[in-house]
Amino acid sequence: MKGSQPLREMRLAGRAIGARGRSIRTRAKRSVGSVGFPYRAPEVPRGVTVPELPSRLEANYETAWAREAPARAVRRLLQAGPLRLFVKIVADPEIAGLDRLADFHPAKNEDPPALIFTPNHHSHLDTGLCLMAIPEPWRSKIVVGAAADYFFTTRISAASSALMLNAIPIDRESLSRKSSDFAKQLIDEGWSLLLFPEGGRSPDGWGQPFKGGAAYLSARTGAPIVPVYIDGAGAIFGKGMKRLKPGRTKVVFGQPLPPVEGENTRRFNERIELAVTELGDEALSDWWGARQRAAATRHSPGPNTGAGAASGRSPSTASSARQGSAPVRSAPGPSSTS
Fold first, then answer.
1. What distance lies between CA 322 and its chain's CA centroid?
2. CATH of the domain at 309
3. How far is CA 144 from CA 30, 86, 94, 246, in A?
4. Does residue 327 fall inside a structural domain?
5. Is the CB of residue 222 less than 8 Å from the CB of residue 298?
């Protein structure tokens, strides 16, 4: 039939075009396949197992970009706006003891000396509270030591922690040589550090023994330790809590502790823990009473004790409860029961 002739011609033309296209694709594949190393990955001989590349997360996450000028500018905006507003609404912090840092304030147009801030640790709010409470000029140049196995396990969480908090990954169990050298480098460059000597949040509202990483870094670099006590954060969002429970908090700064020549890390670490313990007593009672009890080597409240920070009670009420029969973890050094 006459009508079928054009249809057959169209089909034949389509087949010819398809064959031509397949021929071109085949030649292209062969051309690409003929390109070898270094444009393609080298071939692996049979029977050879290629080792996996080291992870770029957790302790290996690179944070140098977060200390560059663009990231610092973004972080300054985030901390001055959303983070400060959030902390104010949720925790309403009272800040005390800033006058104890007066001797370390630099002269005009001078860089501040590097300090190592060592607060007790009860809540994820602790980092934000400290960053808002630490005064300038240290606030603008401070690095937060964060648990590598918690904050740096995914690219999103790692990048967020580095950008928002200027966090660096730290092994919470022990200070490795790599982390120690890196922290020393930062201190030598003028960065201050925020480290949590307990290594993690208190699981039950009671204080945990301090690890010696901060004391070791201070002794190695000469940067003084600033003890810090945070009261009330555990009642707002303690470990295991699913929802925020807004309340009030208090952040107390202590007198900076320089390393003493000849003092070993263990003794210095005990001195740091005792200083935070005394600040806890001060936060929950008053400065004079805390100094009297410290001078008399009486049993003082320990960091993150369950009777106060976790209870959500006012400082005066918590202090009264602690003076009763509630057990409190003893601070290091000599003490006697009251």
1. 30
2. 3.40.1130
3. 53, 19, 21, 24
4. no
5. no
pTM, rounded to two decimals: 0.75
C-alpha–C-alpha distance, residues 75 and 128, integer Å: 13
Q: Which domain does 295 fall in, by range?
A: 90-101+111-322
DSSP run (H or E) holding 133: helix 125-133
- Tens digit of each residue's pLDDT (9 = 90 or more) over 171-211: 877 667 888 899 999 999 999 999 999 988 988 878 889 99
Q: Tell me: pLDDT of 283 over 60.
A: yes
Residue 276 lies in a domain: yes
- Kindly tell me if the per-residue pLDDT of 275 is higher than 90: yes
Q: CB under 8 Å to 173, separation ≥6 — which residues?
A: 199, 211
Number of structural domains found in the chain: 1
162 half-sphere exposure, CB direction, 13 A CA radius: 25
Burial (Cβ within 10 Å: 0-12, 13-18, ≥19) of residue 181: exposed
The pLDDT assigned to 331 comes to 36
| The predicted structure's pLDDT at residue 39 | 67
Name 111's Cβ contacts closer than 8 Å, sequence gap at least 6.
137, 190
Among residues 134, 92, 100, which one has the least CA distance to residue 287?
100
Give the range among 50-54, 110-114, 243-247 with minimum mean pLDDT.
50-54
Residue 142 DSSP label:
E
Q: Which residue has the higher pLDDT, 37 or 84?
A: 84
Q: Strand 93-96 and strand 192-194: pairing?
A: unpaired
Domain assignment present for 73: no
Residue 200's Cβ-count burial label (10 Å; 0-12, 13-18, 19+) is middle
Q: Which of 197, 79, 95, 61 is closest to 142 using CA atoms?
A: 79
Answer yes or no: is 172 within a domain. Answer: yes
